[in-house]
Specification:
- The protein has a 7-stranded mixed β-sheet with strand order 12-27-28-29-25-26-13, covered by helices on one side. A 7-stranded mixed β-sheet has the order 23-20-21-22-14-17-24, with no helix packed on it.
- It is α/β, with parallel strands linked by helices.
- It folds into 4 domains: 111 residues, Glutamyl-tRNA Synthetase, domain 3, CATH 3.90.800; 147 residues, Glutamyl-trna Synthetase, Domain 2 (Glutamyl-tRNA Synthetase, domain 2), CATH 1.10.1160; 116 residues, Ribosomal Protein L25, Chain P (Beta Barrel); 150 residues.
- Helix 20 crosses helix 21.
- Helix content is 35%, strand content 19%.
- Strand 2, helix 3 and strand 3 form a beta-alpha-beta unit.
- GO terms for molecular function: ATP binding; glutamine-tRNA ligase activity.
Length: 705
């Protein structure tokens, strides 16, 4: 039984209540039922963890069952990928089953329903059927074929099975209730004709069962006790039970369908259709592209099975759909890799550093700790020489007081090595620094115990010896979408939010200990983040994927953008208080620059919406968003934009009216503009007493057009 030491989620409470009501624990049986029409994604990982986790907690079997009822979209490749993902996550299934195992039994049961006059062959077109089915607010009407005789239905259904008809000419429907408030109960389709090769049954079948008909019956045949699925299937539960009622044997266990909420992940999509679109249209490089939300993509990027299991446990099970910030997933992988990833040195934006007082030709092999979080990780040797690479950003020729890295006249420590001091630089003809010359304190070697080695300096830099450096291709991955919910906007295509900077390929240099690194080996590049060897890596060419940074850069960016919006709102009040035009221009310019730097679609959308009110500062700020943001009026809801212009043109402030008029003048949507012609004419004919010369000028220009 589930541990009583932890609080139970509502799924576990359902199981516990069933056990208390007399269900034997030996009868508990769960399943994970993917459709083999794509690769599994992070949402599936949560479902896998739920079902297999219940199996572990209750010491009960869990089947892996493929709902392979649609040969148009299913392939063996997807079956193999799904099995690999489940195994990689650390789970073992009791039995591998397929809905196609039950095709004959499902057909026999369908025949039984026809004989009971509970199913019939419908010969309507799909368009006619859609009309006949009605709408949620209007009842459906009976199909003209609903009252076919049992004999005719049996004959037609067998001929459908034998392949005598073309696809779309006939379907088999359950005869339930065309007036049901649940649209799924209005004579749902049980079978359709498909002349397609099936990846397991070949060409044996010309008709294939629909998901709703196959799913519950498959659960019943496998003696599944609890069938857990996402909330979108809640309306299907009534149909699931109706179908079971028709074939159930009271002596066998009856499956119970219950639903839990999807846990959507921000800055990504988890729709198989949309993931497939990303692949087919080459926005990514395959299902296992490290930017994808697929399990195989996450694995390739460097995520561990433990981090995904921990993520699933962290977000838990809920009854309401929710958007989980991807930073939670990134926290889980940081936490895991922090414990297991060896620390190494790599330089990704190199500049040459020369230690002028270090003997030419000399090299030392210094001791470096592999992982301070793991006392058993041990140490390794790294080579040190006169010429090194350091990160370009770790040096400034003229640095502010709080710059804690290398600059001229200042000391820093080289990790595991010596204290150095900036002396001079060498530049090319364009003024770019090509070399940094430093001196080192010969007595300051880390760990030597000398007084010099214990001297405190302001910073520590990572480095790689140029003589020993190994060149590597490093793929710097960022979030695939710029918006947290790219597929949630009715008027926008989710592809509009594809991040053009989601992949940057650079040449870096790593310490020689990485020369023999293998596919999926994981490392922390000190001060840079966590990186994983990609499958494209070879003995002659190392390729690394950036898994995640040491800090959540997106969270910092989000906070910065929110602060920028909030500070701009505060500053806009000054606009109405200053007395001169140059002062107003300066304030507007500063606010405009802040708005230009905000890239988050939802933040701009919400900021505009919140500021549509009778406050003049709010209205002016909303007009500035229209003018300066990268979004266009069409990116906002039309009703919001209409309301904003109406309120702005009726504002007490000439500055608000003027900005609204200018934004309207520059709109390309002429039909939208015409809605405000009366307001503009009214202002022109009878200007408000406080109308500025600029407002009168704009009005005159717009009316004369």
């Amino acid at each position: 039984m589930a541990s009583e030491e932890k609080s139970l989620n509502f799924i576990e409470q359902i199981i516990e209540e069933d056990l208390k009501s007399g269900l034997s624990q030996t009868k508990l049986h769960f399943r994970f039922p993917p459709e083999p029409n794509g690769y599994l994604h992070i949402g599936h990982a949560s479902s896998i963890a739920l079902n297999f986790g219940l199996g572990i907690d209750y010491q009960s079997p869990v089947n892996l069952r493929f709902d392979d009822t649609n040969p148009e979209k299913e392939e063996q490749e997807f079956v193999d990928a799904i099995k690999k993902d489940v195994e990689w996550l650390g789970y073992t299934w009791a039995e591998e089953r397929y809905a196609s195992d039950y095709f004959q039994q499902l057909y026999d049961w369908a025949v039984l329903l026809i004989k009971k006059d509970k199913a019939y062959v419908d010969s309507q077109s799909s368009e006619d059927m859609a009309i006949q089915k009605g709408t949620p607010s209007t009842v459906g009407t009976d199909s003209p074929f609903r009252n076919r005789s049992v004999e005719e239905n049996l004959d037609l259904f067998e001929r459908m099975k034998n392949g005598e008809f073309e696809a779309g000419t006939h379907i088999l429907r359950a005869k339930i209730d065309m007036k049901s408030t649940n649209m799924l109960m209005r004579d749902p389709i049980m079978y359709r004709i498909l002349h397609r090769h099936h990846h397991r049954t070949g060409d044996d079948w010309k008709i294939y069962p629909m998901y709703d008909w196959a799913h519950g019956q498959s659960d019943y045949l496998e003696e599944i006790s609890h069938s857990f699925c996402t909330l979108e299937f809640l309306p299907h539960r009534e149909l699931y039970d109706w179908f079971l009622d028709q074939i159930i044997d009271e002596n066998q266990i009856r499956p119970k369908q219950r639903e839990f909420a999807r846990r959507n992940l921000s800055h990504t999509v988890v729709s198989k259709r949309k993931l497939q679109q990303l692949v087919k249209e080459k926005h990514v490089n395959g299902w296992d592209d490290p930017r994808m939300s697929t399990i195989s993509g996450l694995r390739r990027r460097g995520y561990t099975a433990a981090s995904l299991r921990n993520f699933a446990n962290t977000i838990g099970i809920a009854k309401r759909d929710n958007l989980i910030n991807v930073s939670v997933l990134e926290f889980c992988i940081r936490e895991d890799l922090n414990k297991i990833a060896p620390r190494v040195m790599a330089v990704l934006d190199p500049v040459k550093l020369v230690i002028t007082n270090y003997p030419e030709g000399k090299e030392e092999w210094l001791e470096a700790e592999n992982n301070q979080e793991d006392e058993n990780a041990g140490f390794r040797k790294v080579p040190f020489s006169r010429e090194l690479y350091i990160e370009r950003e770790d040096f400034l020729e003229e640095a502010p007081a709080k710059f804690f890295r290398l600059t001229l006249g200042k000391e820093v420590r080289l990790k595991n090595a010596y204290i150095i001091k900036g002396e001079s630089v060498v530049k090319d003809a364009a003024g770019n620094i090509t070399e940094i010359h430093v001196t080192y304190d010969t007595d300051s070697l880390s760990g030597s115990g000398t007084e010099a080695s214990q001297r405190k300096v302001s910073g520590t830099l990572h480095w790689v010896s140029i003589q020993h450096a190994v060149e590597a291709e490093v793929r710097m991955y960022d979030r695939l979408f710029t918006d947290e919910a790219p597929d949630s906007y009715k008027e926008k295509n989710f592809l509009d939010f594809v991040n053009p900077n989601s992949l940057e390929i650079i040449k870096g240099f790593v310490e020689p200990s990485l020369a023999t690194a293998q596919n999926e080996d994981k490392f922390q590049f000190q001060r840079l983040g966590y990186f994983t060897v990609d499958k494209d890596s070879t003995a002659s060419k190392l390729v690394f994927n950036k898994t995640v940074g040491l800090k959540d850069a997106w969270e910092e960016k989000g906070k910065k953008e929110e602060n920028s919006i909030n500070n701009s709102l505060k500053d806009i009040n000054k606009y109405f208080k200053v007395e001169t035009k140059p002062e107003r221009i300066a304030i507007e310019s500063a606010i405009g620059e802040s708005i230009k730097n905000v890239s988050t679609f939802s933040l701009l959308q919400n900021s505009l919406k919140k500021n549509i009110n009778n406050n003049k500062a709010s209205l002016l700020f909303a007009q500035f968003i229209l003018k300066y943001s990268h979004l266009k009026s069409a990116d906002f809801e039309e009703e919001d934009i209409k309301k904003l212009y109406t309120m702005s043109l009726r504002s007490e402030s000439t500055y608000v009216r003027s900005k609204a008029l200018l934004n309207l003048r520059d709109l390309e949507n002429e039909s939208f503009k015409t809605q405000f012609e009366d307001e503009i004419l009214k202002l022109y004919s009878n200007p408000p007493k406080n109308a500025s010369e600029r407002e009168i000028e704009i009005l005159s220009e717009m009316v004369k057009k």
